[in-house]
Amino acid sequence: MLAEITRSSFYASRAVARLSGLIPTSSAVLTNSSRHIQIEQKRTKPFKMALYETVEKGAKNSTSYSLYFKNKCGNVISPMHDIPLYANEEKTTYNMVVEVPRWTNAKMEISLKTPLNPIKQDIKKGKLRFVANCFPHKGYIWNYGALPQTWENPDHIEPSTGCKGDNDPIDVIEIGYRVAKRGDVLKVKVLGTIALIDEGETDWKIIAIDVNDPLASKVNDIADVDQYFPGLLRATVEWFKIYKIPDGKPENQFAFNGDAKNADFATTIIAETHKFWQNLVHQSGVSSSISTTNITNRNSEHVIAKEEAAKLLSEAPEGGQVEEVSDTVDTWHFIHLK
Dihedrals φ, ψ of 63, to 5°? Predict the structure, then answer.
């Protein structure tokens, strides 16, 4: 009898509490449980970690400044030798190392002679180099950089241009809407190429777009560039023709009358420069012009331990004498082609 009274009192008290809002109804419990599950799902949603990060050494606007790279494991790497050329298994997208963000002037590039090839600013006559603004342009008119694990062999004469390679990784211009950051590693789709002839050397400029760009799904070849980016190819050729004229150099020339080649042609050229790079990184002896120090190419005699790579970073120069950037860097140069 006592048990029955106790049980009745318990249910009666729960009913009063529920009416008073002190205990949630079963539907409220379900709703709250559902909300809790959703919150937990958000908390446990996979976090996409960047594959690469950069470390600055030395003072900006000094000859000591350099930008080193690390992989997702925190190991110091070479952006030229340790970042894969291909960004997917199908080998249809490529990794691009951004050296110069759009609309900037500092001539930054992968340092070929420095071990682990950090990005450094080019030096001309002892001074940091800046690219001139040729009206109506401001600095570089696209994100500019290089494809890793490529090399334009200076001992190879390219049959289509009749000129030898320029001894650099192959250059890329990325035409998407986003202004990238120096040191970004972008996944890009190749659309075509133009062939600059720079002081008698073939200097390919691969035209590409970030795969995450809103227009990436619509542009697949060089003809699509004219459709979705009208005027950009013409402006690109003009830019390369005239950008050295303010420094007292002649107008640059192009193979193929400045016409762009399609994506198939471009990917063939990239594959060729990748083979040249493979020969370079696996060659015996030390190159006088390019450091092939790396941590991932196990068949290369230039591979080093990750601890040694970390030591190279720690020993990189700090500080440095900062150069005052002259306001003449912002000068507009009005160039008239003949």
Answer: -70, -10
Q: What is the pLDDT of residues 265-295, one digit of tens each?
A: 999 999 999 999 999 999 887 666 899 999 9
Provide the residue count of the chain. Answer: 338
Q: Which residue has the tokens 């790279």?
A: 69
Q: Which domains does the chain have, with CATH numbers?
A: 83-292 (3.90.80.10)
For the chain, the straight-line distance linking the first and the last C-alpha, in angstroms and rounded, comes to 112
Q: What is the pLDDT of residues 116-156, one digit of tens each?
A: 999 999 998 889 999 999 999 999 999 999 999 999 999 99
C-alpha distance from residue 13 to each of 7, 19, 21, 28 (Å):
10, 10, 12, 19
